[in-house]
């Protein structure tokens, strides 16, 4: 019995072995090919991340040097009005700016996709162009436009005998920043959505038209549900982008120092802590907490999207 | 100095290569590499990073007076006493020398330029408003009101929100000495207990509240415009201001004049210092002798010092250069032929000794921005902001392990 089974199994096993070798080779190739990425990922992301995490459990004083403090930096951050205020401000930014921006992007994408527009390419490029302008340049430009003395809006108001609008006053400046970011990113999000729209099979439209659906109905019932993936992607990117806001407020600070504090956004605060206060340990803790906030919010967004999908 | 040596020199002084070339002509064996890693904040961030990394730091480095104590605190600068820099002491006014010997121990830099404060003003606008040059702060406040009364769209002057260095110079002038540091772990922070600081703060609080002076950020577009188009008729600034203004407000050439700051006590004229740099040698330098020579040469060699003063327009710290006719007798057409250098030389002699900066002046400046600066921007309560600034600094100092006295 024993011998029999052995002889019977032998060719099978050999076959298996061959498969295994082939598979193993494939695996090896897969690992070899992804190695450059893995190495770069480890060196540029994983190692610094772990190092930052390590740093966040210490405290360095100008007098007295370095000491281990456990979770102290995190506890401090959770009661730090500068950090909490920044996160709150970015949450407000998110709730107002992201829907407006994505709404506009979707509208432009749908209009372009409908094919009912003349100069389509020109308009597509025109909406996209601001994204190609570095945010630093864009902010300097808008900073000039917002100017209270010689900005064009102020000039226009003056010509009409109205008081010049103060875009950089404490209560307005968040909206002025929203405007800059929206201006910069509508085109980018539009292109992502537009690309998704182009991949919807045309038969669906034909069928719907045969059923007598209007363009509006087409957009609402076919196009938007079909690009759900792209919408989710752009939403999550926008969530991350909002919480990481840095360039725009940091540059506008030069012309509106009273309205934009150094702790205006969590990233600005971390930068300030690290390079001005010389407290990079606490800055590392802030950066980690911000990362956790972003992950949590992104997760909630994804969860709600999935739940909706299941419900529909 | 005959051995082949390489030195790295970090500075943002434009065209400093001119002085370095003079140095190399004299010491051909020493090769100096001049690097501009950025101005102000960027410069110090990179310097700190290099010091922490333990490599890549330069041998000689530009170091502003108000930053110097924060680098002696971390023991990063070389004491130049053994390199004979002490013999230069008599060439400088006491307050300049005090700036490179924080806490009175050691010599940590060779002075490069200074910024004793004066007042630049538009003579034409003053005349049109029927004003004479205010000699005291009381007269200045009256002039602010009178000027505004005659000009709906123009103000006598502007004072920026992010102005710690500028404000400290006014405290300095008034005799305020809010800070000190013993070089070890003891700091004094006494903004609210210092009568002069309180007096100056209350004075400016009233000016801002009146709405008759500007509160615009300086060195920004709108501010440059303001100096050009007559929105502001005066600028209280350091000795480096006249040349800067000349490049910024070209269209107003010939209309500006220079005067001393208004005084608290006109019987004993005083001023404070706003800005200015030294060249320091880092402790990590492998060639400290050559590095110390470089720092000394570019700032004190007669030709180099005159070039810095007359071609790069750094206001000279040394009394030798200040009194050199090639510098002192120059007249400036932008200022209607006035001898601007001579004016500021006289002002420099009125700056009093004993003012110290905190060993964490970066933080002090950013803390100023969020307390005093915010109050200036909002025309809020500057007196309360002074207390808030004091409290914030004390809290930071204690958190950093200093023993704080007030």
From TrEMBL, chain A:
It is a multi-pass membrane protein. Residues 87-301 form the ABC transmembrane type-1 domain. Its main location: membrane. Coiled coil: none annotated. It is found in: Cell membrane. The keyword Transport applies. It holds the Pfam family BPD_transp_1. CDD domains: TM_PBP2. It comes from the Bacteria. Keywords: Cell membrane, Membrane, Transmembrane, Transmembrane helix, Transport. PANTHER family: ABC TRANSPORTER PERMEASE PROTEIN, DIACETYLCHITOBIOSE UPTAKE SYSTEM PERMEASE PROTEIN NGCF. Belongs to the binding-protein-dependent transport system permease family. This is ABC transporter permease. The lineage of its organism: Bacteria, Bacillati, Actinomycetota, Actinomycetes, Micrococcales.
């Amino acid at each position: 019995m024993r011998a029999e089974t052995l002889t019977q199994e032998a060719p099978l096993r050999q076959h298996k072995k061959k498969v295994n070798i082939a598979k193993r080779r494939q695996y090896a190739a897969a690992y070899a090919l992804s190695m450059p990425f893995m190495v770069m990922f480890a060196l540029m992301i994983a190692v610094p991340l772990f190092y930052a995490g390590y740093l966040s459990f210490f405290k360095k004083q100008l007098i007295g040097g370095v000491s281990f403090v456990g979770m102290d930096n995190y506890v401090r951050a959770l009661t730090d009005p500068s950090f909490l205020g920044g996160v709150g401000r970015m949450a407000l930014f998110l709730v107002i700016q992201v829907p407006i921006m994505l709404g506009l992007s979707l509208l432009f994408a749908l209009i372009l996709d409908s094919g009912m527009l003349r100069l389509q390419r020109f308009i597509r490029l025109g909406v996209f162009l601001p994204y190609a302008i570095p945010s630093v340049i864009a902010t300097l430009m808008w900073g000039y436009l917002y100017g209270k003395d010689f900005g064009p809006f102020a000039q226009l108001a003056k010509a009409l005998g109205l008081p010049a609008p103060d875009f950089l006053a404490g209560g307005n400046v968040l909206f002025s920043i929203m405007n800059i970011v929206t201006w910069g990113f509508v085109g980018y999000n539009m292109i992502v959505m537009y690309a998704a729209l182009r991949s919807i099979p045309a038969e669906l439209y034909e069928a719907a038209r045969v059923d007598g659906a209007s363009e509006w109905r087409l957009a609402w019932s076919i196009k938007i549900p079909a690009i759900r993936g792209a919408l989710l992607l752009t939403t999550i990117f926008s969530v991350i982008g909002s919480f990481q806001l840095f360039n725009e407020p940091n540059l506008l600070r030069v012309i509106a120092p009273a309205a934009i504090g150094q702790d205006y956004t969590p990233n600005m605060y971390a930068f300030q802590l690290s390079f001005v206060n010389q407290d990079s340990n606490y800055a590392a803790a802030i950066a980690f907490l911000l990362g956790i906030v972003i992950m949590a919010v992104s997760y909630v967004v994804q969860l709600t999207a999935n739940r909706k999908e299941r419900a529909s | 100095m005959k051995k082949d040596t390489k030195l790295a020199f970090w500075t943002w002084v434009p065209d400093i290569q001119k002085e370095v070339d003079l140095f190399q002509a004299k010491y051909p064996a020493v090769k100096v590499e001049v690097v501009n890693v950025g101005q102000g904040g960027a410069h110090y961030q990179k310097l700190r990073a290099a010091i922490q990394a333990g490599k890549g730091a330069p041998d000689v480095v530009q170091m502003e007076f108000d930053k110097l104590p924060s680098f002696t605190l971390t023991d990063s600068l070389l004491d130049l006493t053994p390199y004979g820099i002490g013999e230069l002491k008599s060439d400088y006014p006491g307050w300049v020398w005090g700036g490179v010997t924080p806490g009175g121990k050691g010599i940590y830099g060779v002075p490069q330029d200074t910024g004793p404060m004066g007042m630049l003003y538009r003579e034409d606008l003053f005349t049109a408003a029927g004003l004479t040059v205010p000699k005291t702060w009381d007269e200045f406040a009256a002039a602010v009101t009178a000027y505004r009364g005659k000009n709906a769209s123009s103000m006598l002057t502007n004072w920026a929100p992010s102005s710690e260095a500028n404000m400290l110079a006014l405290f300095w002038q008034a005799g305020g000495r809010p800070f000190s540091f013993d070089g070890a772990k003891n700091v004094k922070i006494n903004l609210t207990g210092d009568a002069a600081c309180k007096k100056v703060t209350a004075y400016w609080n009233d000016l801002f509240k009146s709405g008759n002076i500007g509160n615009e950020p300086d060195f920004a577009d709108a501010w440059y415009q303001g100096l050009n188009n007559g929105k502001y008729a005066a600028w209280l600034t350091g000795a480096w201001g006249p040349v800067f203004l000349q490049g910024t407000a070209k269209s107003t050439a010939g209309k500006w004049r220079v005067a001393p700051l208004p005084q608290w006590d006109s019987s004993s004229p005083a001023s404070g210092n706003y800005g200015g740099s030294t060249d320091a040698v880092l402790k990590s330098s492998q060639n400290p002798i050559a590095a110390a020579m470089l720092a000394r040469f570019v700032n004190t060699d007669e030709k180099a010092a005159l070039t810095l003063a007359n071609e790069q327009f750094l206001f000279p710290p040394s009394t030798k250069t200040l009194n050199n006719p090639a510098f002192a007798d120059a007249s400036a057409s932008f200022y209607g032929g006035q001898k601007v250098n001579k004016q500021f030389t006289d002002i420099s002699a009125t700056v009093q000794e004993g003012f110290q900066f905190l060993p964490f002046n970066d933080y002090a400046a950013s803390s100023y921005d969020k307390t005093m600066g915010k109050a200036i921007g909002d025309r809020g309560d500057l007196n309360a902001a002074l207390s808030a600034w004091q409290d914030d600094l004390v809290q930071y100092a204690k958190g950093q392990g200093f023993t704080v006295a007030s």
